[in-house]
């Protein structure tokens, strides 16, 4: 059996269907199987990425034996492959983190791990697929898993957060369905490459309507303003590993789908300006809101939304350097935000309240965790020599190259806001007066391991960004080259 | 009846009822205070969208896309078959809509148990 | 004030939708030439009989051409059932009623339900076994069977379906579906490709793996929908 992209979907599904039966045999198996699957998929990522980079050609896999556009196909290119590998590695680390995570052990572990694995599979599927209705189906898989995982804990306001998320999510999927329907009537196909090819036959008015419907539908998962009202509640109420998964996987899939629709399918000039404007609005509102938060997880959630706004701005600028910077930022955000969520969750778990004020002095009780959190904070605001510095720098350079100096000013101003609220937390960690509580919950071995790996990545990439810039450049090229995508999939 | 007017009436009827369903559902979601009614509104929106899907695939004078003995006879006699793709897409969309409704209802039950009310304005944290 | 604003919003949405859809003529064929297919629909109509020997083109689309979508859809159902169970899970508290329906329904409904229930099951099974020949298929058949169970739930307050059995049926059916796909992979073809012979048109055994997949889907959907009803009605705790 050849290693091919369909393993990313087929194996987790097989495992998910098998798990309820295995749970009757042995409870521990339920926790181990997702790990086995994810480790295997990480290995698959390495093999496939190697193949794609060496040959320079994407892997286009047809399913059910029907060539595109008559059947569905999966596309593992330098761009999609990079994103999928990133997601799979992050998912593996998050699994390691949650393996003996105290709170998850007490609740029904079987359901949690099934939902978690499907969340990962759904996000990966969104990125891999080459067919637009298939993308919708995978988005719904991701969405339903998210709704259920957000409301997982009984002792929090999870149900409210989940319900709000569900409402906005359903409306968004309605918009997306309408967009797909209209698009189908115009071009007669559902394959993304063929849609891109036939897009010029669609009258402009219809094109604009469909684009607006798509952007509204996809903007929710991409946390674009004003569709991101669900995010702070969902991030803060869900279990911490799930919050990390949202930040590292789900939102990346959402941004990917938005970018794929705008760059490859539509390619209208106005869309790029729209991305920049919405990105700025998202960034500014989110960062200022983050400053006002007193709850640590909500603050991190708003910061996440702001970073995504930044990514949208970079994609909106549209030049090769800007897209390169955007991809770099997506990589950094996945790594750093997960680290912040993981370390932050331990602080919150060990203090009396979820508020930042309740964290005073904890940095001294858990010096290593404090170090990790501070590392993450410094990295995300873009201080050298951490990885976050490079992505911000490249995007600023790209903006300056396009003479968008107002944009540069806004980004720098927002960075100052970021520094303020992150340093406030770090200061509280170290310089506050410690409370006299017992150390109740130490991080598990799995927790230490995954967080250390993430911190190492931040440091290594910070000092030697060339390790991944090669991948990123190729990814940016592949994304921008619409003609190559069409010819690779359709074969002409 | 004049065929053009007849066509117009059918078109308005079909599209109008589907869009009407979407608007009714949207109204329920935005205005109603009781959580179950909001979920029903979501379901109605879904029904409207599915109707639109099927309406779009229809071909005048067409027959079902099934090659049964009778179907083959009709095709050989010159009839056209309707577009099968929207119907297949609707199958998937209906099931997905069911999944979302099921999760939504379970959340409503949980909220009701917790707060002893199912009205959205009495549950503080649901405020926008 | 707020209501007026919402009515305005609805009018705008309605007008935009109506305007957009008025450009899509109702009843006009957008398929193009069926013999020289340019659009996906025309291709399916043209090629299903020769390549797959399946009479119901929609079944062929759902299970074969776009079988991957169906796999995703089955997953959505599975996820919805899991999510439902995880959200409603709780430990049983003392003295709490186990069941939501508190009294039996009328004699008419009880007798009628008992009589019709086997017929509904047979109808559902017929629909999903003949999915490739007549309108219908796995999802439709599964839903019919689940409605039969719903009738029994409503008629008898103590009617239970064993959660164990449902879980087994669900999981096995799902595994069968994915295995058929992987079988395609292992035989050197692509995932979910048809690896059995196709047989003749309009036979019960025709279409290769298509009836197999649809039967698995039928069982899975029936088990899942019944499981969802069971969870909502009985709030049983998880083991």
Gross morphology of chain A is globular
Distance between the termini of chain B: 53 Å
| Uncertain ranges of chain B | none
Could you state the order of secondary-structure elements of chain B as H and E? Answer: HHHH
Mean pLDDT of chain A: 84
Mass-distribution shape of chain B:
elongated
Largest sheet of chain B: none
Subunit arrangement of the protein:
heterotrimer
Instruction: Please name the CATH architecture of chain B.
Output: Orthogonal Bundle
Q: Which CATH first-tier class of chain B would you pick?
A: Mainly Alpha
Number of domains of chain A: 1
* Radius of gyration of chain B using CA atoms only: 21 Å
**Approximate strand percentage of chain A:** under 5%
What is the secondary structure topology, with strand pairs?
The complex is a heterotrimer of chains A (492), B (128) and C (239).
Chain A: H1 7-25, H2 27-55, E1 59-62, E2 73-76, H3 78-98, H4 102-106, H5 109-128, H6 132-150, H7 158-187, H8 192-198, H9 204-219, H10 230-237, H11 240-266, H12 269-291, H13 296-317, H14 320-350, H15 362-365, H16 367-381, H17 387-401, H18 405-431, H19 445-463, H20 466-480, H21 482-490
Antiparallel strand pairs in A: 1-2
Helix pairs in contact in A: 1-2, 1-5, 2-3, 2-5, 3-5, 3-11, 3-14, 3-19, 3-20, 5-6, 5-11, 6-7, 6-11, 7-9, 7-10, 8-21, 9-11, 10-11, 10-13, 11-13, 11-14, 12-13, 12-18, 13-14, 14-16, 14-17, 14-19, 14-20, 16-18, 16-19, 17-19
Chain B: H1 3-31, H2 35-57, H3 69-76, H4 84-115
Helix pairs in contact in B: 1-2, 2-4
Chain C: H1 2-22, H2 40-52, H3 57-65, H4 67-88, H5 107-129, H6 138-155, H7 163-186, H8 210-234
Helix pairs in contact in C: 2-3, 3-4, 4-8, 5-6, 6-8, 7-8
């Amino acid at each position: 059996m050849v290693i091919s992209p369909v393993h990313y979907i087929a194996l987790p599904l097989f495992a998910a269907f098998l798990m309820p039966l295995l749970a009757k045999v042995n409870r521990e198996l339920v926790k181990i199987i997702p790990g086995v699957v994810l480790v295997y998929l990480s290995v698959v990522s390495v093999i496939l990425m190697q193949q794609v980079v060496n040959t320079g050609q994407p892997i286009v896999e047809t399913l059910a034996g029907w060539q595109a556009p008559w059947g569905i196909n999966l596309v593992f290119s330098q761009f999609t492959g990079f994103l999928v590998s990133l997601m799979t590695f992050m998912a593996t680390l998050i699994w390691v983190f949650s393996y003996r995570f105290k709170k998850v052990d007490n609740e029904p572990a079987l359901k949690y791990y099934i939902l978690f694995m499907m969340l990962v599979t759904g996000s990966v599927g969104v990125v891999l697929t080459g067919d637009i209705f298939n993308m919708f189906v995978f988005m719904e898989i991701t969405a339903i898993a998210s709704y259920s995982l957000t409301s997982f804990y009984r002792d929090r306001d999870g149900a409210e957060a989940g319900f709000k998320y569900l409402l906005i999510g359903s409306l968004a999927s309605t918009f997306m369905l309408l967009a797909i329907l209209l698009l189908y009537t115009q071009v007669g196909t559902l394959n993304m490459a063929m849609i891109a090819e036939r897009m010029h036959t669609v009258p402009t008015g219809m094109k604009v309507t469909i684009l607006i419907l798509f952007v509204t539908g996809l903007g929710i998962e991409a946390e674009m303003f004003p569709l991101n009202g669900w995010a702070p509640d969902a991030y803060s109420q869900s279990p911490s590993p799930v919050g990390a998964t949202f930040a590292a996987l789900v939102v990346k899939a959402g941004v990917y789908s938005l970018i794929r629709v705008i760059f490859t399918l539509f390619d209208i000039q106005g869309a790029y300006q729209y991305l920049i404007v919405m990105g700025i609005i998202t960034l500014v509102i989110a960062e200022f809101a983050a400053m006002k938060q007193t709850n640590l997880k909500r603050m991190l959630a708003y910061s996440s939304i702001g970073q995504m706004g930044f990514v949208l701005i970079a994609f909106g600028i549209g030049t090769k350097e800007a897209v390169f910077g955007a991809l770099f930022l997506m990589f950094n955000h996945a790594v750093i935000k997960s680290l912040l969520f993981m370390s932050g969750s331990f602080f919150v778990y060990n203090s009396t309240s979820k508020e930042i004020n309740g964290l005073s002095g904890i940095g001294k009780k858990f010096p290593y965790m404090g170090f990790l959190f501070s590392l993450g904070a410094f990295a995300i605001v873009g201080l050298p020599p951490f990885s976050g510095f490079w992505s911000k720098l490249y995007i600023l350079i790209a903006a300056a190259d396009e003479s968008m100096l107002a944009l540069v000013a806004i980004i720098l101003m927002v960075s100052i806001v970021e520094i303020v609220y992150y340093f406030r937390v770090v200061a509280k960690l170290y310089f506050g007066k410690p409370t006299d509580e017992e150390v109740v919950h130490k991080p598990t071995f799995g927790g230490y391991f995954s967080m250390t790996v993430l911190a190492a990545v931040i440091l290594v990439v910070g000092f030697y960004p060339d390790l991944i810039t090669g991948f990123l450049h190729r990814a940016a090229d592949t994304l921008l080259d619409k003609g190559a995508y069409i010819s690779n999939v359709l074969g002409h | 009846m004049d065929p053009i007017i007849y066509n117009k009436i059918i078109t308005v009827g079909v599209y109008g009822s589907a869009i009407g369903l979407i608007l009714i559902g949207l109204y329920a979601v935005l205005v109603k205070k009781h959580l179950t009614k909001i979920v029903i509104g979501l379901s109605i929106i879904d029904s409207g969208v599915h109707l639109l899907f099927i309406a779009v695939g229809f071909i005048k004078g067409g027959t079902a896309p099934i090659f049964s003995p009778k179907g083959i006879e009709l095709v050989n006699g010159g009839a056209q078959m309707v577009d099968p793709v929207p119907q297949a897409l609707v199958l998937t969309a209906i099931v997905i809509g069911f999944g979302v409704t099921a999760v939504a209802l379970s959340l409503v039950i949980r909220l009701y148990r917790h707060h002893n009310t199912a009205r959205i304005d009495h549950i503080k944290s649901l405020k926008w | 004030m707020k209501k007026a604003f919402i009515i305005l919003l609805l009018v705008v949405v309605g007008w935009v939708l109506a305007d957009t859809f008025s450009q899509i003529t109702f009843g006009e064929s957008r398929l193009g030439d069926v013999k020289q297919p340019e659009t996906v629909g025309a291709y399916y109509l043209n090629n299903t009989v020769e390549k797959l020997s399946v009479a119901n083109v929609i079944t062929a689309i759902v299970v074969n051409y776009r079988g991957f979508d169906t796999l995703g859809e089955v997953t959505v159902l599975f996820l919805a059932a899991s999510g439902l169970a995880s959200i409603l899970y709780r430990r049983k508290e003392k003295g709490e009623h186990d069941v939501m329906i508190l009294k039996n329904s009328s004699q008419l409904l009880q007798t009628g339900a008992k009589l019709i229930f086997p017929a509904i099951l047979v109808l559902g099974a017929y629909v999903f076994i003949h999915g490739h020949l007549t309108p219908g298929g796995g999802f439709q058949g599964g839903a019919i069977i689940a409605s039969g169970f719903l009738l029994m739930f409503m008629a008898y307050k103590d009617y239970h379906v064993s959660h164990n059995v449902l879980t087994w049926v669900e999981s096995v059916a799902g595994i069968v579906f994915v295995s058929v796909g992987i079988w395609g992979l292992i035989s050197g073809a692509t995932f979910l490709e048809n690896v059995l012979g196709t047989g003749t048109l309009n036979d019960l055994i025709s279409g290769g793996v298509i009836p197999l997949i649809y039967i698995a889907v039928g069982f899975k959907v029936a088990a899942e929908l019944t499981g969802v009803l069971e969870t909502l009605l009985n709030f049983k705790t998880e083991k």
